[in-house]
Amino acid sequence: MAQVQENGDALAAPIVHAPREYQAYPGAKYILPTDDAERQRQHKTLKSMFGNRILFAPVELDENDKVLDVGTGPGLWVLDLAASVDSSTQMIGVDIETRLFPASPPKNIQFRVESVTNLPAEWSNTFSLVHQRLLVVALQVPQWPTALSEIYRVLRPNGWVQIAESTPWHDDIEYPAWPCLAKLAALYRAVARSRNLYVDCAYDMPKMLEAAGFIDVRSESRMQCMGKWAGENGAAMHSNHVGVLRGIKTPVLQAGGYGLVSSEAEFDALVEGLAKEWEEAPGCDKEFIVFWARKPSS
């Protein structure tokens, strides 16, 4: 018998499959897995897109500074930063899940469970730099102003925030050369809508930062080209985004396929078809944007 929502509409029965590991934090809406397959999927590819730069905010870190990495996951960004700055700079990586935390971090880095929507009260005016990347599939629409307000609070006066997000796939435009992508984009949007996730946050980031009180808002972007035709980085980006779409399989199937897929085999066939589409019909469809902004001195 079909499940029924509070409004009386019937829910599709879940499609049986072997799910991957996902966030267990109460109320978490993050739609991608938190298992080993996610550890290295993003960092190296995104870093290479910008000539191996990971720090865009104009800060010079020393022993008097503290850095906060929000949504740190396996800590790849903060570990990379720590290797290139003064080793006495104190850093904290926070996430709502401990599963990906590194086992033996350097002495100047600690990892702890915290949510960006409710950071510790004692952290007010503490950090010279706060970094956050790819929480597009984690934070719900009303949580973004709260998160940016919390980041603003914990920054020191004249401190910098650096936020990086990807623009989304669209389900309201045609992809004539990529029919598999068209259906997967619709599935991605359907999962996001069902969880009230702000998948268009990259488009609105400058005005959200300004609304939170930040000034000197800047950004730099790169197009994300998928496929070997775009060289080594294109091949890596291809693998990266196929991984994203493969990662939404569990929530899609648990929701019954949203009327777009009816089995795990059908979903897998879409992902495999997409991998071929990006090789046979080259193109660049998504931007990756790094934003940075300053908390005023007073």
Automatic annotation (TrEMBL):
<dbReference type="GO" id="GO:0032259">
    <property type="term" value="P:methylation"/>
</dbReference>
<dbReference type="GO" id="GO:0008168">
    <property type="term" value="F:methyltransferase activity"/>
</dbReference>
<dbReference type="Pfam" id="PF13649">
    <property type="entry name" value="Methyltransf_25"/>
</dbReference>
<keyword id="KW-0489">Methyltransferase</keyword>
<dbReference type="InterPro" id="IPR029063">
    <property type="entry name" value="SAM-dependent_MTases_sf"/>
</dbReference>
<keyword id="KW-0808">Transferase</keyword>
<feature type="domain" description="Methyltransferase">
    <location>
        <begin position="67"/>
        <end position="159"/>
    </location>
</feature>
<protein>
    <submittedName>
        <fullName>S-adenosyl-L-methionine-dependent methyltransferase</fullName>
    </submittedName>
</protein>
<dbReference type="InterPro" id="IPR041698">
    <property type="entry name" value="Methyltransf_25"/>
</dbReference>
